[in-house]
């Protein structure tokens, strides 16, 4: 399985991942944040990303490692 790639690191510690073979991106804003899914999240005027409400990734994450683990579990879920 391909892994999501970090395309932006925020001053808050958050990141934006590009999903493999997709135009979708996932955003985690930093400690205590949830994962959000959307398109072109770094472009001005893009739509606000939607919270991921799947059992594998529905939570608040204190570290990037926790957020990335949840993201990978979400991507692996069928």
Give the topology, please.
Blueprint: E1 5-9, E2 15-18, E3 24-28, E4 35-39, E5 50-51, H1 64-76
Antiparallel strand pairs: 1-2, 2-3, 3-4, 4-5
> Unreliable stretches, pLDDT < 50, 5 or more residues?
none
The shape is globular
Structural class: alpha+beta
Order of helices and strands: EEEEEH
Number of helices: 1
In round numbers, the mean pLDDT is: 93
Q: Could you tell me the strand content as a percent range?
A: 25-35%
Instruction: Give the oligomeric state of the chains in this entry, treating copies of one chain as homo and distinct chains as hetero.
Output: single chain
Q: How is the largest sheet built, in terms of strand order?
A: 1-2-3-4-5
Radius of gyration computed on alpha carbons: 11 Å
Please outline the major beta sheet.
Answer: 5 strands, antiparallel
The count of strands amounts to 5
Number of domains: 1
Outline the structure in words.
- The chain has 78 residues and is an alpha+beta fold.
- It has one domain (5-76).
- It has one helix and five strands.
- The protein has a five-stranded antiparallel beta sheet with strand order 1-2-3-4-5, with helices on one face.
- It is globular.
- The two termini are 12 Å apart.
- The mean pLDDT is 93.
Sum up the structure in keywords:
78 residues, globular, alpha+beta, five-stranded antiparallel beta sheet, single chain, 5 strands
Sum this structure up briefly.
The chain is α+β, with helices and mostly antiparallel strands. Helices cover 17% and strands 27% of the residues.
């Amino acid at each position: 399985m391909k892994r999501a790639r970090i395309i932006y690191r925020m001053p808050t510690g958050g990141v934006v991942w590009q999903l493999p073979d997709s135009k979708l991106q996932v955003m985690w804003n930093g400690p205590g944040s949830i994962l959000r899914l959307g398109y072109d999240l770094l472009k001005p005027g893009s739509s606000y990303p939607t919270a991921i409400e799947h059992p594998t990734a529905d939570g608040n994450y204190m570290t990037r490692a926790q957020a990335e683990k949840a993201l990978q579990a979400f991507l692996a879920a069928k």
